[in-house]
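Risk register update: the risk that structure generation would not scale has been downgraded. Supporting records follow, first protein first.
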Amino acid sequence: MADIDLLKGAKGVEAAYPDVLTQWQVYKMVETGQLPVIRKGRRLYFRRSDIEASFKSEIGAASAPHDTGDVIPLNPRSTMPLAEAKQVLASIGYRQDWTTQELIAAVPRDMLRKVEVALRVVSAACFAEARELEAEVARRRDNDR
């Protein structure tokens, strides 16, 4: 029986976390030791729990990401405090219902990369909060039994 916690390859990680990681970020995180990997020959396998632990260690297990200016990892070269990411998005009047084309039209060309990083930081923070909420709901459901 396959281990549900196991993801096959960097593409598997990207498919499981599409708004958070690309396969190239996964390779870079493995290369820099930020993400544990299981190697079987030439194949790479990743545990979901290791990936999520990597996010939690960066966000900080003791506080929710929105409480402080925690730095959320994207790749070794592009990080930004959450508070700064929110300020960047507020400065352009960003709304979640914007299409990609509307976003590109609203952002000055020299700010595109900064806005991209800001969106990824906020997305990673939302992802972490959703996972914490999911775990809390499961704990309460188990306690009710």
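Supporting record for the second protein:
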Amino acid sequence: MPEYRQDPLTGRTVIVAEERAARPHQFDIEEIGSEDASSPNGYRRTCPFCEGNENQTPNEITAFRPVSQEGGTLPDTPGWTVRSLPNKYPAVVRDAAYNDSLAFPSHFSLNGGSSPQTCHDLAFPGLGHHEVIVDTPRHVLSVTDMTEQEVSDMFCMYRERLRTLKAEGRWACVEIFKNVGVAAGASIPHSHSQLIAMPFVPPAFQSMLLRARQYRERHHSCFWCDMLQFELGKQTRIVEETNDFVALCPFVSRFAAEVEIYPKAHVSGFETMENMGDIVLLTQFAALVRRTVTRLEQAVSWMKGPLAYNFVLQTQPFVVSSQDDENLFHWHLSILPSLARAAGFEWGTGLHINPVPPEKSRFSGSWGSSFFMIKIPLLVPRVINALSACTSCSEMQNFHGIFP
């Protein structure tokens, strides 16, 4: 069984999961068979996620299946648009021995700042839920290869899975993420996402919520709402603004061209969009995500091979420390291009060195030529104005200065 382990001094928590070592790595497998190359929708008989290969995966948890006059198709058969499955190689597992999952971590300190009670063996079983969401039945790699409707359906499945897992009452926090390309950690070249539910809120997330609570207590407002207002006023890091969403390069960007997308309205949980005309909003959000990744890919189109990147959807934990914290968070999606790898300094200190200021990495091309010393074709979307000079480090002092 997998195991959570925590360093008593730093609070760093890891998952030890031998099962993950058995994952297939189909990026290493040549596409074979002339019948595959000419098949509709890029079908690959070696790909477990392609429509028609449902017998190569565990039985589906749920799927979106269009209903016709004859009715919908049966589970684990073709005819789906998005499909959710148990992960065949899970990092965490369900265990009937622990019915009350939320009480389980009380035996395990997750407060990295507290005094260590022991110098060894701080661990508990790797309880959780791990699934794969197959984004599309077609054999494509990136969201830019998907239609806007397919991307919208993918986010609809995210929302539905969050709602279902929240209703179980067993999990404290759910992370949904997407790895695209080998450099981003993907093992199968068919667009898919992953979901991991945990019986506790990870220490880094706890720390973020604590600081957001401190900000609200001092300013009587949401940190992220105030940050969006500030960024929209400055306009130096905005990638695109729509009626209901904002895409921006965060002030503290860890990587070149890192992007975060937020709803303008204060919404804590991604699964709670049902009262906001959610279908229209999800369609708008999906289109913005697709356009943003398109810009990223075009900005580095000179690279050999497709751009690798990660999605991370951060949403309100299901369990919070008090009723006052139920609407504390502001959900958002982070897009992290794999343009550089962490090296010794980053591993040793936890500090990322970003050679491209976010004020200059709004996909106009200038950041790429200075970083890689290779000329990149200019991409100037209509929503981006001419780049201004790099903002000084004191620019956000008034906004961020409340924290030590």
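The chain is about 25% helix and 15% strand. On this basis the risk owner (M.S.) recommends closing the item.
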